[in-house]
Amino acid sequence: MPPQAGSTSDARRSSWNSLWRLRSYLRPYTRPLVVSWVAAVLGIAAGILTPLVGKEIIDGPVAHGDQGALLPLGLLALVLGVAEALLTFLRRWSQAAPVLGLETAIRDDLYRHLQRLPMRFHDEWQSGQLLSRATTDLSTIRRFLGFGVLFLVMNVLQLTTVIVVLLRMYWPLGLLVAGSAIPVVILSQRFEKRYIRISRQVQDEQGDLATFVEESALGIRTIKAFGRRRHVAATYDGLAGKVHRTSLAKVRLSSRFFTFLEVVPNVTLAMVLLLGALAVGGGGLTLGTLVAFTTLVLQLVWPVTSLGYILAMGQEAMTSADRVVEVLDTMPEIVGGSDTVAAPRGHLRFEGVEFRFPGAARPVLRDVWLDVRPGETVAVVGATGSGKTTLTALVPRLVDVTAGRVTVDGHDVRDLSLPSLRSVVATAFEEPTLFSMSVRENLTLGHRDATDDDVRAALEIAQATFAYDLPWGLDTRIGEQGMSLSGGQRQRLALARAVLGKPRILVLDDTLSALDVETEALVEEALRGVLADATGLVVAHRASTVLLADRVALLREGTITHIGRHTDLLSEVPEYRALLAQDAELDPEEALQ
Amino acid sequence: MSEGVAGDTWRGVAAEDKDQLSDTVSLLLRTRSRRLLGDLLRPHRRQMALLFAIIVLSSGAGLAIPYLVAAGIDDGIPPMLRDDGSGTLLVIVVAVVTAALIQALTRQAFLRLSGRIGQDILLELRRRVFDHFQKLSLSFHEKYTSGRVISRLTSDIEAIAELLASGLDGLVTAVLTLVGTAVMLLVLDAHLAVVALLPLPLLLLFTRWFRRESGITYRRTREAVALVIVHFVESMTGIRAVQAFRREPRNQEIFERLNDDYRDANMRAARIVAIFMPGIKLIGNVTVAAVLLYGGWLALHDAVTVGVLAAFLLYLRQFYEPMQEISQFYNTLQSAGAALEKLSGVLEEEPAVAEPRRPAALPYARGSVRFDGVEFSYTGGAPVIPALDLEIPAGQTVAVVGTTGAGKTTLAKLISRFYDPVAGRVLLDGVDLRDLDEAVLRRSVVMVTQENFLFTGTVADNIRFGRPEAGDEDVVAAARAIGAHDFIAALPDGYDTEVGKRGGRMSAGQRQLVAFARAFLADPAVLILDEATSSLDVPSERLVQRALRTILADRTAVIIAHRLSTVEIADRVLVMESGRVVEDGSPERLIGGSGRFARLHRAWVDSLA
């Protein structure tokens, strides 16, 4: 999370560090960057010289009636003006590539990193928060590194050069102008701090609002089912109202500051006029110099007023950099080892496995021992909340054990490279996640080289050949989360995805729950063939699914209490009977009828 | 096609994905955005008038300063040179300071007032769009996808916020400065003013070119960023499958391509600005040089004073600087314009399931449901339900069985009015659902699906979603009734346990129990369970079923299940096939017969150990 207020200097240092670290992304663009900086400096020079030419015209040709000198000076002003425009063009044109390249490269890296971060990270972070880092924060950084830094340097350069020129023209007035910049800089410093604080607050509140928007978009069915539109709208209103109030406070703060910024140069101008006129009267100053002076003073208005704005922008960029670096610095706890399984047999073992959420008092799993031999299928049966899903997530390392180990063919899964492990293990989840892409792409997620025959075989096993009858067959794009398909259809596609490519170890986490009885029977029949070769770990609620397995493990409060054959457990373990022998005691009369 | 060449291709959100639009269509889109803008501004008419007065005063004061400088040089200095004292000069200096102060104070007032109006408008727009999205029917959401909903409500709103925060100020100030400066130049010296203003037509043409070009690029940019966002959000929400199936490299490829497209769109935009801004500067600088030359020549011949020449140089700076700002602001305006176009498109979408103009009264729903010649098909698809007549008396529990795709879920969605029938009527207590106020309908009919979405918050919050005004004891009672109390009480903080992101801290079964408690707390006359018990384990399902007997005793229930265990508690069973009811009767009668249900039932009994 962003650094807490209070340790401002520490926070600032870390912010600088975050932003400074990102500079390496600019390295490939040294040449265009140099071009744009050189163009910027030359442009400033051209801009400052133009009023000086004006001075020469007024003091020279105009004062002395020298018509011959007017034309060359006028042409010089023209050349300078054209040069300034061309230099500005060059600066802007060459700047685009580095700046946008930086943003794009960081975003690519951020995405790559997020894909590597484990489930635990994603369980904690709303995707809205991640998104705001990948979009809003990156644009802030882009704007600052691209334009902010350049303008900051340009403005300081312009400021000092103009003040030096002014001091050399007529030092008392130059001193006055230089002095007028002091309160501006001091105040903008002070303002900047308060502005950052309030901007952060707005950012946070907007983040909350975005999170709520995300939830209400994803949960639209539930909201509609209960007709809670007004309730949800009221919550949204509350959050939006907060943003509104804080934004107003921000407006008030900046209105005071920017007003001050505008008053100072104008009062300075009045003073320059007064003292300058007096000096002209006293003969200390020429009329041309006074005109050039006033023009140059006006040239300072933008650099001075924008200084505060750019500094504020810099602070925002630092905050953003912190937020981006925070994600980039989150170490992926689950990284692959170097081992690979050359010829996987699919021997899966849980050895004294424990899993506990960080800070949780009770472990979800404890002391789990289970040996699934190659080709064997074990069903995991247990009450709601007994830890079945966590157990299955340990195999492809979506989560890691907190004690003990899980091995595949004798290798600790943590020693295997992730691609190697995850090509040995395929999982079908209870909640089938489908992506906004074609059916074919959804199926071949992990197997891009799968042939049409492979796909057909997988679809047949999962009883999902309906996919061929979709409007564009396998090329039909299925909507976000497969919304336009029924729950059963989605589950069958997810199952087809898992069996595609004949994985050595197949993990089925209650994958058949949304299927009707007839389809389920057909799927089970087909799965029997697949599981005959593969090692299987099947979470089951129903007797019919359990029958796919050679042995059954009964999970109770996070540990395996019984392992055995279905019929044995049924006759020996009352608890198992209660879980699976469905209607024995439900209502005998009706069941019998 | 009464719309002429444009047809309906631009209505609602249809034009969102296009980046090249015909002139007619972009005109229609602009009109639509403008209407929305007018709509939003209207309540602030008085404040806007005040704002205008303030800005005129402020610009007047600002414009006076160079004029006063000229007066100082021409009228203030000569008396001093003649040793006539510095009285005039002092008066002028005091006037400059006064003008500066007026400008500053009015500026502050302007910033505050415009800030307030802007924020008020933003709040109103946020509310309106959010509320409208919530009103739009499921069929819209299914097509539109949540990623786009999110980007409408975040990045698009932000684009408008930026316009309101900085753009409005920039535009008004720039336009006033432009006009004011032109007037002042003409007043000061008409000849020199003609030279100074000569490039104006060129400036306007150039700006027009810029407007066109950046209009296209900004549209493209926003579309590109929307695609980036959709892909990003989808990969992050589906990260489990992404990792389990080693999708990362391919995802990275897709993301980098989209990201590159976004960069290219941005690049084009940046290049157009890179041509425009220096272009304006070029015109400005050439004009300054021309004024110096011509003005110098005039001064040489005593046709203008040095003070006027100085004022011209000061004014010209003021004249071209805001032009640059306008183009800066134009970016903001373009993106806000594109955003407004989309938002107005969303607001234009009519809910396919619309609320009635004059809702029928239904103070107390008993819960009888009737299908009267109902026909349904998804847009452009074959009929899912060809023609259905069905009567469910109040209080009856009906189980609907059939294979996947038989139309069971569609039936449920029709009763809960997620969809409207294409022909025929669905009636609740004799009232067409289309005539019922949404609040009344949702109070009477609640559907629980397999998709048990939990919101961030505590377990209690999620149960209370069913009836927000319910007290703590009601929440606990509901949880007890469906048998969820024990597991909730065992959670670290009991009912106050945070469920985590989308209930991620709980198992699917636990989430489902919470969803059940939520539905029970809502206490509807008609309860629809669409495969709602499928993710429960047997003991939980048994608990729920035991509870259902009590819960369903005095209400109508439609239970869609592929597990026949659910059928046990039904008074009546409907077997559906291809959208038709093929068998209808009490479970006992159907099991005893020789139809499909009897076969199903036998298969199911066999499947039990």
Automatic annotation (TrEMBL), chain A:
- The membrane-spanning stretches of this chain are 29-49, 69-90, 144-167, 173-191, 257-281, 287-312
Where, per UniProt, does this protein localize? Cell membrane
Q: Which GO terms fall under molecular function for this chain's record?
A: ATP binding
Q: Which Gene3D superfamilies match?
A: ABC transporter type 1, transmembrane domain, P-loop containing nucleotide triphosphate hydrolases
Taking the record's annotation, the residue ranges forming a coiled coil are none
ABC transmembrane type-1 domain location: 38-316
Q: What is this protein called?
A: ABC transporter ATP-binding protein
Q: Which organism is it from?
A: Microtetraspora glauca
Domain ABC transporter residues, every copy? 348-582
Please give, as recorded in its UniProt entry, the membrane topology of this protein. Multi-pass membrane protein
Q: Which SMART domains match?
A: AAA
List the keywords (alphabetical): ATP-binding, Membrane, Nucleotide-binding, Transmembrane, Transmembrane helix
Automatic annotation (TrEMBL), chain B:
Q: Which positions fall inside the ABC transmembrane type-1 domain? A: 49-335
> Keywords assigned by UniProt?
ATP-binding, Membrane, Nucleotide-binding, Transmembrane, Transmembrane helix
The residue ranges crossing the membrane are 49-69, 89-106, 163-186, 192-210, 272-292, 298-316
Spell out the Pfam families in the cross-references. ABC_membrane, ABC_tran
Q: What is this protein called?
A: ABC transporter ATP-binding protein
Region forming the signal peptide: none
Where it mainly occurs, coarsely classed, is membrane
Q: State its location(s).
A: Cell membrane
Q: How does it sit in the membrane?
A: Multi-pass membrane protein
Molecular function GO labels = ATP binding
For whether the record's keyword set contains Nucleotide-binding, the answer is yes
